Amino acid sequence: MPPLAIKVEYLDYRSCIIQEIHSTILAYAHWSPQNIYANQYKSVYNENMDFSILVPILFGFLFAIVINYLTDLLPYGFTLSRPVCHHQGCGQPFSWTDYLLLRRCANCQARSRVKPIFIYILTLTSSIYLWINQSSFLLFLLSLLVLSYLFIVGLIDFEHHLILLPLNIAGVIILGCAGIILHGWMSTLLGGVAGATIMYLLFLLGKLFTRYKARKLGVPQSSLEDSLAFGDVILLALLGLLLGWPGIWLGLLLGILLAGILSIAIIIILILQRKYREKALSLFIPLGPGFIIASITIVYIPKILSSFWL
Hints:
By secondary structure, the chain is mainly α. It has helices at residues 3-31, 44-47, 54-73, 96-100, 114-133, 137-160, 165-217, 230-243, 247-272, 276-279, 288-300, 302-309.
């Protein structure tokens, strides 16, 4: 085959890839939760519930309490109990009144209010946004449930570097059902398999990078956290159920981009603090939150991606 023909075929192939990504972004903008069933229903908020903006505030507040509670409880055990202060091994249980009002521990007087306040603001804002844009009350609840699940997984991964088994089981049910509603069971299944396969290959590369870090630092490999944990493989499989095929490709690319931006920001901070040489090789940045933010962006606010692409 002449070289010119090979070059033309290569350009055609690259053009097909670009068109596929473009069509994927537009497809997500079409079947996103705020557009699904748009032909059958008008917005619940705009049509029937102009007077009931308190409904999403109430649900947002309740879901925020659950998110705060589970992110404080699950990293330390799976038994439902009163919240406990974990500051330097304090172990003092909170009364429910003190916990809900964000009061400090009665024993050690320690408790950060940053995370719970952030969760309240994020969940209440998300609840109002979904209420305004959804076409039915059931879709509003399902979307808020999916978002709350993703918030819990992302916060625990960011704070404790853990992807917990009970959350994985719940994710199969919640994200699997949401994926089937959004794009059918075949696309949902293919997305889950593709997400797990791609992330497993990256997991193996992460093992090699951890071995390299151990050699450079002169420490046993077991003393270092892996660049990617197997929990990340499971997380990508779950997000693949939500995003479907070929949407998982877009989620993977956007997640890596967001994780890269976070890494650059942390490196800049370390350089400004003159701690880069000391902590560069031992630095661990969880990728899970980046993939979760990417998935939320794709599913719930795809117009951002389509505006950048177009």
